[in-house]
Amino acid sequence: MSGATVDSRVTLAGIELRNPVLTASGTFGYGTEFAPFLDLRRIGGFVAKSLTLKPRTGNPPPRIAEAPSAMLNAISLENVGVEAFVGEKLPALPDDVVVIASVFGTEIMEYAEVCKQLTGVPRVAGLEVNASCPHVKSGGIEFGQDPRVLADLVRSVRRATDLPLLVKLSPNVTSIAEMARVCEGEGADGLSLINAVQALEVDVETRRPVLQNGLGGLSGPAIRPIALRMVWQAARAVDIPICGIGGISDAADAVKFLLCGATAIQVGTANYLNPMAAGEIADGIASYCEDHGVGRVADLVGALESF
Ligand SMILES: Cc1cc2nc3c(=O)[nH]c(=O)nc-3n(C[C@H](O)[C@H](O)[C@H](O)COP(=O)(O)O)c2cc1C
After folding, report:
1. In sequence order, which residues have a C-beta less than 8 Å from that of residue 79 and are 6 or more positions away?
2. How far is the CA of 306 from the centre of ligand 1 (A)?
3. Most buried residue, 36, 102, 157, 196, by most Cβ within 10 Å?
């Protein structure tokens, strides 16, 4: 079935999306790179590569590697910086594409300043604060692993912007419910989870890590059941909406996240295998609904049978 009769619209942290499918930060460039393959108006929107105050180069290669049903990366937040994003990248996008800017900093002041500079920029619908990069030497994962530091971060960025504010959480924690509650308590409008899982792969010939950086982040289908478990736990812990991320490769994967309580989802590593994946997943969710007598995609959210 085509899914044409289904109402696919959802509202995530106050951001109205034509359907629940976004592309994940760092896996979809600045949007225009994918334009030859996918009409961005087919998806709910996209989350841009994490931005820092100044342009930043990433780690030296090798910085990506294959793993079973997954990939490892240690790109380390290479980006054009907030000024070039606003001045050059945003204007290149079609007008009616929902853009969520991802924010990173090596200290809380930097996060807050990037949020300030993005606030009031007409094309930016919301912010996603990356509190969870698993392979930078300072910042990132540290902010997402200690509940007190996370609280300080969310409080500061909340003061810096009145845009819808999502906080992207790390899976590398003992209690995702605790971290979710911290963000809700400090005024986050929503949560995105999960970022990549901290990981290590070794070359037995060189006896060195395969990545120049040593540690990296694992993403792709191998992490999906971990992500699903964490989304389910976070959704039970807080009332703010959740954007589910982790190994989503097809519409059935996406529906699982919606059932576990995600209001929307993001497609990451799958974009590399198939640059049309996000569009196909959006269409596939609507078809699933039509085939199962569900009139509105929003009705799937949290509809998992209790167990
Ligand atoms: C190459 C690469 C670069 C990434 N860069 C970022 C980034 O800049 N900011 C961020 O929040 N997440 C980044 N991520 C994490 C993804 O957004 C996503 O959370 C993670 O890959 C899990 O989803 P997936 O399994 O669908 O890829 C990156 C992931 C990959 C594979």
Report:
1. 49, 50, 51, 52, 55, 56, 85, 104
2. 30
3. 196
Cβ neighbour number for residue 304 with a 10 Å cutoff: 15
Instruction: Write out the residue range of the structural domain in which residue 127 sits.
Output: 10-300
pTM for this structure?
Answer: 0.97
CB distance 75 to 63 below 8 Å: yes
Point out the residues that are catalytic.
133
Q: Whose CA is nearest to atom 28 of ligand 1?
A: 26
Is 161 part of a structural domain of the chain? yes
The response to whether residue 150 sits with its C-beta less than 6 Å from ligand 1 reads no
Atom of ligand 1 nearest to the CA of 267: 26
Is 268 part of any domain?
Answer: yes
Can you give the CATH number for the domain in which 141 is found? 3.20.20.70
Q: Is residue 109 part of a domain?
A: yes
**Cα 24 to averaged position of ligand 1 atoms, centre (Å):** 6
Specify the number of domains making up the chain: 1
* Residue 167 phi, psi (nearest 5): -110, 130
- CB of 73 closer than 6 A to ligand 1? yes
Q: What confidence score (pLDDT) does residue 209 get?
A: 98
Q: Which residue lies with its CA nearest to atom 3 of ligand 1?
A: 26
**pLDDT band at 137; cut points 50, 70, 90:** low
Give tens-digit pLDDT for 269-297. Answer: 999 999 999 999 999 999 999 999 999 99
Residue 1 in domain: no
